[in-house]
Write a structure and sequence with these properties.
Elements (H helix, E strand, L loop, with lengths): L15 E5 L3 H7 L4 H22 L3 E8 L7 H24 L2 E6 L7 H14 L5 E9 L1 H18 L9 H5 L12 E4 L18 E4 L9 H13 L10
Parallel strand pairs: 1-2, 1-5, 2-4, 3-4, 5-6
Keywords: Magnesium, Metal-binding, Transferase
GO molecular function: transferase activity
Subunit structure: Homodimer.
Length: about 240
């Protein structure tokens, strides 16, 4: 891809890990705390995931931080999550920059508060030249919405006469997605024991290996990342073909 120059990638280890960070609310409920406290603890687990992937030599990490459906949650919870995003971006940016991490964001960023949009732009600009790892954060993101947006973009080109319908194939469609400049996930991890994608990277996960962990996201540690990768290494990725 020309974005990441990683020389310590172990044979067979996934080059792109995507994580659905689930279980903040249940973690808090189990400890008789507010859901807001669960989100605060969950933010700390993000550091574990980023650090773990960096140390393992995984060049691409994508985190599902806030879905397009999450806007339906109570206003207090949404506002608290926005506050956590502000805090996390401001607090972690310097360390991410120094660690060689390039920060990207996907989703309907225009729906976020203006100050967070500015923080997003600042984080992208400050880390644009980094090549050791790409951290993609999905904010206000929905896989179905992303696919519809790509289809509309292609339809506009056909309407304008700059693209013929027969020229549209899987590769061209992928080029119109938010993730056009990063590879599809090799491994998707979901915490909390739930077993669904929840509208996350639906196109990109067509042949991803899925690993579901019972641990709630606030309790996620390097050990759990390694467990998921160990499970991934046992899989035989055939992409619809017959294994040799």
């Amino acid at each position: 891809m020309g974005i990441v120059q990683s020389s310590n990638l172990m044979p067979g280890i996934p080059s792109h890990v995507a994580i659905i960070m689930d279980g903040n609310g249940r973690w808090a409920t189990g400890k008789s705390l507010t859901r807001l406290k669960g989100h605060e603890q969950g933010a700390k687990a993000v550091r574990e995931a980023v650090k773990g992937c960096r140390e393992l030599g995984i060049p691409f990490l994508t985190l599902f931080a806030f879905s397009s459906e999450n806007w339906k949650r109570p206003k207090e919870e949404v506002n608290h999550l926005m506050g956590l995003f502000r805090y996390f971006i401001q607090k972690e940016l310097t360390e991410l920059k120094e660690a060689g991490v390039k920060v990207k964001f996907i989703g309907n960023i225009n729906r976020l508060p203006k100050d967070i949009q500015k923080l997003v732009d600042h984080a992208k600009a400050e880390t644009a030249g980094n090549k050791d790892m790409v951290l993609t954060v999905a904010l206000s993101y929905g896989g179905q919405q992303e696919i519809v947006h790509a289809a509309k973009a292609l339809a506009e080109k056909v309407k304008a006469g700059t693209l013929a319908p027969e020229e549209i194939d899987e590769a061209l469609f992928a080029d119109h997605l938010d993730t056009a400049d990063i590879p599809d996930p090799d491994l998707v991890i979901r915490t909390s024991g739930e077993k669904r994608l929840s509208n996350f990277l639906l196109w990109q996960c067509a042949y991803s290996e899925l690993v579901f962990l019972d641990v709630l996201w606030p309790d996620f540690k390097r050990l759990h990342l390694e467990q998921a990768i160990e499970e991934y290494l046992k899989r035989c990725r055939r992409y619809g073909a017959v294994s040799v």
